Amino acid sequence: MIRTKIAGIGKYLPQQVMTNDDLVKYMDTTDEWIRERTGIRERRFAQRTGETTATMGIEASRMAMQNANTNPKEIDFVIFATLSPDYYFPGCGVLVQRELGMKEIGALDIRNQCSGFVYALSVADQFIKTGMYKNILVIGSEKHSFGLDMSTRGRNISVIFGDGAGAVVVQPTELEDQGILSTHLHSDGRSAELLAMYNPGTHANHWTREKLADFNEAEVADMFMSKEMVEKSQNFPNMDGPAVFKMAAIKFPEVIREALDKNGFQVSDIDLLVPHQANLRISQFLESQLGLKGRVYNNIQRYGNTTAASIPIGLCEAWEEGRVKRGDLICLASFGSGFTWGSILLKW
Questions:
Q1: Pick from 118, 85, 135, 126: which is nearest to 3 by CA?
Q2: Which of 263, 269, 266, 286 is closest to 334 using CA atoms?
Q3: Contact status, residue 66 vs residue 192, Cβ threshold 8 Å
Q4: Percent of residues in the chain assigned helix, strand, coil, to nearest 5
Q5: Residues 274-313 as b or e (16 or more Cβ within 10 Å = b)
Q6: CB 116 within 8 A of CB 81
Q7: Is the pTM of this model over 0.85?
Q8: What are phi and psi of 336, to 5 degrees?
Q9: Which of 15, 131, 137, 191 is the most buried (most CB within 10 A)?
Q10: What value does the mean pLDDT of the chain take?
Q11: Could you write out the DSSP letters of every residue in 138-175?
């Protein structure tokens, strides 16, 4: 039976550290206010022009390939997960393919925000198990800092996010005690607008067809990004924090248990849970509710929420620290905008 193993893992974090006290210079907040609500003490911000989502992903990829004892010429597919691409289009996958001098391989971009890496790794798993590809590079990378409202108006969101990238190289394995055991993906779009960046977009700012009839063609065209949208902060991320927290607290443990039940394991069998770093309070809730004391990996205190990059960064750090060892049962789980959520259970 062919399974998908993580053959190599890597990460990249920008040099610039932005502490909570640094944010006080831009908005009405305090270190205590931020830590109490999120657990975050600091985060990394990429260089404004010198680093992009793609370049950070490339650096993480180089580390992952080195750890997998492979090189760009041997990679036969790229999957890139991000909500902050370099361009509106094309996606970052082709930029990685170009910069690393890869063959004319396929490149797939995934837009599942906080659940991006779980979705991307699940897709890679299908390609490996069917034998279509042998060396897949899976990347999660984010440059949030360029698109945050760094004012008091946007503090509820802007204090949460940071920049960084993580990557893995996945390959087939026939060993019974190694590889991805199962993946579980879900979505519920009924609350899509509770965590969203509305503009720029093609939804015409939620105006109905009847209301659009009152505008001429030039005015409708301006709705892609208008002065009014900027003044109302509609070109920045928007979030109903309490609603998102409440749903995450339900779906995180639910999807973790789904993965365990599928494979005949108990919570006590998990050696390490690496959740998407949404909020330290959510991770602490999971640890308490599931009885995983000391077995939940958290780094949001130092990096903030790096959405699609948070799981591979955390998994890489855990591996570097010796907390991920051969044969360990590892669970990856995420919840985010959409809403989308998912889990992956694997043997390292």
A1: 126
A2: 286
A3: no
A4: 40, 25, 35
A5: bbbbbbbbbbebbbeebebeebbbbbbebbbbbbbbbbbb
A6: yes
A7: yes
A8: -170, -165
A9: 137
A10: 92
A11: EEEEE--GGG---SGGGHHHHTTB--EEEEEEEEEE--
Q: How many residues comprise the chain?
A: 348
Which amino acid is present at 110?
Answer: I
Catalytic center residues: 114, 276, 305
Domains located in the chain, CATH noted: 3-173 (3.40.47.10), 179-192+238-347 (3.40.47.10), 198-231 (no CATH)
- Asked whether the bond before 253 is cis by omega within 30 degrees of 0, the reply is no
Distance CA 196, CA 252 (A): 20
Phi/psi for 278 (5° steps) reads -85, -45
Using CA atoms, how far apart are residues 244 and 334, in angstroms rounded to an integer?
13
- Work out whether the CA dihedral 85, 88, 91, 96 comes out positive or negative: negative
Torsion angle in degrees (nearest 10) through CA of 93, 168, 272, 116 = 10
| CA dihedral angle for residue 159, residue 142, residue 340, residue 347, rounded to 10 degrees | -110
pLDDT (tens digit, 9 = 90+) per residue, 187-197?
Answer: 999 888 888 88
237: exposed, middle or buried (Cβ count in 10 Å: 0-12, 13-18, 19+): buried
User: Which residues in the chain show pLDDT less than 50?
Assistant: 205, 207-209
Instruction: Give tens-digit pLDDT for 151-164.
Output: 898 888 999 999 99
CA distance 84 to 45: 13
DSSP letter (8 states) at residue 118: H
Give the span between the Cα atoms of 145 and 84, in whole angstroms. 10
CA dihedral (251, 238, 38, 244) in degrees, to 10, reads: -20
Q: Which of 40, 44, 49 is nearest to 14 (CA)?
A: 44
Dihedral pair phi/psi, residue 189, rounded to 5°? -85, 5
**What's the token pair of residue 270?**
């998990």
* Distance between CA atoms of residues 169 and 5, nearest Å: 8
Beta bridge partners of 170: 6, 136
